Every structure is written in C-alpha cells, then in structure tokens.
Predict the 3D structure of the following.
Amino acid sequence: MFRNHMVIAAAALIFTQAVPVQAQDKSFKLASPDALTDTGFMKHLLPRFSLKTGIRITLDDTGAASFGADGTPVFRQGDTLWHFAHAETDFTSAFEAWLLSDVGKRTIEAFAPDGAPVFSADVSATKVAKVAALTGDAKLGEAVSLKKCGRCHVVNDTNRMNAIGSTPSFALMRNFGDWQERFETFFLLNPHPSFTQVEDVTEPFAENLPSPIHPIEVTLDEIEAITAFVSSIPPADLGAPVQSQ
C-alpha cells in the first residue's frame, strides 16, 4: 500500500514538472459599438497603444472593457462623448491611462482620414493627464537606427554619405512637433508598411505580395530605443526665415 502511494506521488510530481508554466498573456478584449468601429478609428488607435505597451487588444463584444456611455470620458465625436469602462486589471488600467496621457490625446486627434480630425480629446476630464516617459535604450536605438534606417535616412555623421538624399534626416525630423509619434508609429506611415514588420504587431506579408525591397524587421523594444535615441539628437538648425524685401 505504501509503495502504491509512493508511485502515485512520483507520477504526480513528474506530470507537474512536465507542464510548462505559461507566461501571462498581455492582452484583453474590448467591446466597441459599430458606430465607433465603422469609422476605422480602432485600426488607428489600438496598434499605437500596443506599440507603446506591448499589450494586445482584441475587438470582441464579450470584452470586459468597452467604449460607450458609461465610465471615464476619453474622447468626443461631435456631440457624442465616448467613455471607457472596464473591469480593473493592469492592462485595462494602462489603456485608460494612455488614453488620458498627452501621447494618447495626440493619437486620438491625429485620426483624420479625410484631412479633418474626427475626434477630440478635450473632454474636461477630471483626471490628470500623464506624460509618457521615454524609457528606451538610446545607445541601442542608435545602433538599430544605423542598421535598419540608415539605408535611407541620415542617422548621424557616420552614414551621411550613404543615405538617400531625398529622405529627411533624423535631425531634420527632430524639428517636427509630432516627431515622437512619427517615430513610434513609423511602420504605419508610407512608405514603411510595404517593407516593415514589427514583431507581434503587424501581420505577415501576404505570400502573393512579398515586400518589394529587403524587409525591415523590428521589435517594440527596438522602436522604443530608436525613439529614445532620437530624443537625444539636437534638432537640425534650419536657419532664420527668409526676410521679404
């Protein structure tokens, strides 16, 4: 009898050790009304959040988080004030904080498929907007930039003679008021989508539509590192404006 118990215990231990420990899935489901989803806004908003945090959001009517008439006001569409309601988790709370942050607000108001913004982030929210800090590795960002961006853009003096003259340099783009968002979401801005893949964010190229040039593959960490590196670059001196005679 004692031996049988020992065999069962040993088998249970082996089974327990054989079952791999699953990493926590950084994702949640979000319910979005058709009136909001049909605008195309979710395809603009959600990938940018995932890029910044690594948290995936899947649209699903059964989601514990939702946009609607209840919860925290997060953006306005004409006379409609959209709210975000959610069951409290680290991931849904991170999404709410991002929507109310400076970066999130700029992202909301940058959605302008016909040239005019569709949503406003001015909802007179009582919560204090949080400024997103740049936490990437700037040294890594410089190395990645030279390797993966330097074939087109002047990254620094070391590749000044090897880049394409018609593309703006990093120092020039540092002058743009929305430079941070541009670098964080460059893979969505033409012509990058045709040859850029972001691990766990973008869909693979269709087999019948391969990238026309050698593709660039980057990770979310590398994009954060690139953005941190660009933040350390002094904006290019564009000189004084031309004075009319």
Notes: Residues 5-23, 125-131, 241-245 have pLDDT under 50 and may be disordered. The first strand starts at residue 27 and ends at 31. The beta strands are 27-31, 56-59, 65-68, 72-77, 80-86, 196-198, 216-218.
